[in-house]
Design brief:
448 residues
Length: 448
């Protein structure tokens, strides 16, 4: 029997045993809730359908480990707060817990309130398994399973309108989940791939939260950085960070690129920038943000001359990512920006200020509540736009002109649909500016 002095780190074998025990506990609870899990290592299937065995292994490991090393029991290590300061581990835990809570609430809402048929599609009669089958998720799973296709015309909805980074990640994660097993029905394979997309979103959001925490430490102070991350996780549109959508990957790439760019770490800045450019159509606008940062550094620092070429290359990475996909689309469709033309099939075409005057007419003739009932998605999106635009000035005051450029660029996709286009039924989110608002909000409070 061994013990450690209070406050000292547990031995390596104790930490390994605790990690194994927690793994068995999580698998046991997952199996208890969902009825089993099936993974694939190449052609070898791994099926787990007995929660009692997993929970027994958990209890046995904990008992042996505690008998051999009672000084720091497992529950104390899990619940212990090392100090008042935040750490990457605590940021990751908080981020993952917030996303899992969203999934639980979503499931309870479906089984208690029900689901509008227009909101999703059916891959399984099990509401939990089918929870991810919503809206654009079907497009992403289709790309992951079968790649891109073009029907020779731009007036039909086709998957070329969706950028490739996220569905390609889903494809990679889908293999060990059995998403490409020929003996599994297509609907079930699609559901497994979509749940792989949820895993990607959870990991990406946790990783992005750590990046945001580090970026906030550099800009508003370590004592407020954790709160900035918590505010982002509680933001209403953050619900999409729990879904098989591009938002979490986009956030990770954007915050990662800005973080490394500010530190002069060009290679990771280029990598994250390319990811952003390949994730969403508006990802290329991050080049404007990074370009402004590069020019400000060049203006303020005497040694910035030799750093200007690599910084401009890193700033161009998001735009290069967009051009790489555009080159592929040109080879497939014959049009360089065919992905943009295909948005017309969703009713997204330039109409000048006509939508603004039309919306004003609705408000004056029918009233706000009736307009919200008639076009709920557009109304929600408009609120997000108003919020993003309203936060531009406070953000500029606290964080400077590069942030102003960031907010205007990242929210421009929302500005254009609402102000200039017809986006009926669109589901674009306004979180793109939200992480900058978190920093502004925390810094504003620090001045009081």
């Amino acid at each position: 029997m061994t013990s450690s002095p209070p406050g000292s780190a547990a031995p390596v074998w104790v930490r390994a045993a605790d990690a194994l025990a927690v793994t068995f506990l999580c698998l046991g609870l997952f199996t208890l809730v969902f009825g089993g899990v099936e993974l694939f290592l190449g052609p070898l299937p791994i099926r787990i359908h007995s929660p009692s065995r997993l929970l027994f292994l958990f209890a046995a490991i904990v008992a042996v480990r505690h008998a051999a090393h009672p000084g720091t029991p497992l529950h104390r290590r899990l619940l212990r707060r090392r100090d008042a300061e935040d750490s990457p581990a605590r940021i990751v835990r908080g981020a993952l817990v917030s996303r899992i809570v969203v999934l639980i609430v979503g499931y309870l809402a479906v089984v208690t309130i029900g689901l509008d048929e227009k909101a999703g599609f059916k891959l399984s009669p099990d509401p939990a398994f089918n929870l991810v089958a919503r809206f654009d998720a079907g497009w992403y799973s289709g790309i992951a399973m079968g790649g891109y296709y073009f029907q020779g015309r731009f007036d039909r909805q086709q998957n070329v309108a969706f950028f490739p980074a996220f569905p390609m990640l889903m494809r990679a994660v889908g293999y060990p989940l059995g998403g490409f097993r020929p003996d599994v029905p297509r609907e079930r394979r699609a559901a497994r791939i979509l749940w792989g997309g949820v895993i990607i979103s959870l990991v990406a959001f946790a990783w992005a939260s750590v990046y945001l925490w580090r970026l906030a430490r550099d800009t508003i102070g370590e004592d407020r950085a954790g709160t900035a991350v918590a505010l982002m996780a509680a933001y209403p549109f953050a619900v999409f960070f729990s879904a098989p959508y591009t938002e979490a990957v986009f956030l990770l790439g954007a915050v990662g690129a800005v973080y490394h760019f500010r530190r002069g770490e060009w290679l990771p800045a280029v990598a994250w920038g390319l990811l952003v450019g390949l994730t969403r159509p508006n990802g290329c606008l991050l080049s404007v943000v990074l370009g402004v940062l590069a020019l400000e550094n060049f203006r303020k620092k005497a040694e910035a001359t030799r750093r200007l070429p690599p910084s401009l290359l890193a700033a161009a990475a998001p735009g290069i990512g967009m051009l790489l996909y555009s080159a592929y689309v040109h080879q497939l469709t014959g049009a360089w920006f065919g992905w943009a033309r295909l948005h017309e099939a969703w009713g997204r075409s330039y109409e000048g200020l006509a939508p603004v005057t039309r919306a004003y007419g609705w408000l004056t003739q029918e009233g706000l509540l009736q307009v919200v009932q008639n076009v709920p998605y557009d109304a929600i999106n408009s609120l997000g736009l108003i919020f993003a635009l309203g936060m531009v000035w406070p953000v500029v005051r606290r964080l400077g002109s590069p942030t102003r450029c960031s907010c205007s660029s990242m929210s421009s996709r929302r500005c254009s649909p609402v102000a200039c286009c017809r986006w009926d039924g669109s589901r674009q989110r306004s979180f793109r500016c939200s992480w900058r608002w978190r920093l502004s909000h925390r810094r504003a409070r620090s001045h009081h």
